[in-house]
């Protein structure tokens, strides 16, 4: 049951790895104990410990990498610059800024961005088109896009001047 769920949940994968390394440690200790009894050579026990320790380190590496990405709110394997370029290349998009891509939980990346579209463009249609692009091209099924009309005369790639 844990093996199936370990593909979907980081927590279940951690529990599965813990259980698997416990079984490996028990098996290695039993084999090492039997070999010590049969041969009298007492170095089988530390060798078995080293094998189990190596197994734990290698099996936990991916778990540690994924949990660190979540903790640090990184974008994982998704390059935010690629996402920004793809959004900016879409028709009617004038500029993209305040773009953030992060990992919410294992296998669940998210994005938020502020998108300016051409003055006469349909904001709602542009948002829907951009959300489909994000899901299809980058696997970003959870997106929060603030889509607004650019001021008249703003050129593609320019950011509006903020007056304060």
Overview of the structural elements:
With 164 residues, this protein is an alpha+beta fold. The chain folds into two domains: 2-71; 80-149, Cation efflux protein, cytoplasmic domain (Alpha-Beta Plaits), CATH 3.30.70.1350. It is built from five helices and three strands; from the N terminus they run ααααββαβ. Strands 1-2-3 form a three-stranded mixed β-sheet. The relative contact order is 0.11.
Can you tag this structure with a few keywords?
164 residues; alpha+beta; Alpha-Beta Plaits; 2 domains; three-stranded mixed β-sheet; 53% helix
Strand order of the largest sheet: 1-2-3
Number of strands: 3
What is the string of SSEs from the N terminus onward? HHHHEEHE
Question: What is the C-alpha radius of gyration, as a whole number of Å?
Answer: 26 Å
Strand proportion, as a percent range, falls in: 15-25%
Mean pLDDT value: 87
- Distinct helical segment count: 5
**N-to-C CA distance:** 58 Å
Molecular shape? rod-shaped
Helix content: 40-55%
Q: What is the total number of structural domains?
A: 2
The stretches of 5 or more residues where confidence is low (pLDDT under 50) are none
Query: What structural class do you assign from the helix and strand content?
Result: alpha+beta
User: In this structure, how is the largest beta sheet organized?
Assistant: 3 strands, mixed
């Amino acid at each position: 049951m844990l093996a199936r769920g370990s593909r979907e949940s980081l927590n279940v994968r951690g529990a599965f790895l813990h259980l698997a390394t416990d079984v490996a440690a028990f098996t290695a200790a039993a084999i090492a104990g039997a070999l010590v009894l049969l041969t009298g050579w007492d170095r089988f026990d530390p060798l078995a410990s080293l094998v189990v320790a190596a197994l734990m380190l290698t099996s936990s590496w991916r778990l540690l990498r994924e949990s660190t990405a979540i903790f640090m709110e990184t974008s994982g394997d998704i390059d935010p610059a690629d996402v920004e370029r793809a959004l900016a290349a879409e028709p009617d998009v004038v500029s993209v800024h305040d773009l953030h891509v992060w990992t919410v939980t294992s296998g669940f990346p998210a994005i938020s961005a502020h998108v300016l579209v051409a003055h006469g463009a349909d904001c709602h249609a542009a948002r829907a088109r951009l959300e489909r692009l994000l899901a299809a091209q980058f696997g970003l099924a959870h997106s929060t896009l603030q889509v607004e009309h650019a001021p008249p005369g703003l050129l593609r790639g320019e950011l509006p001047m903020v007056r304060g």
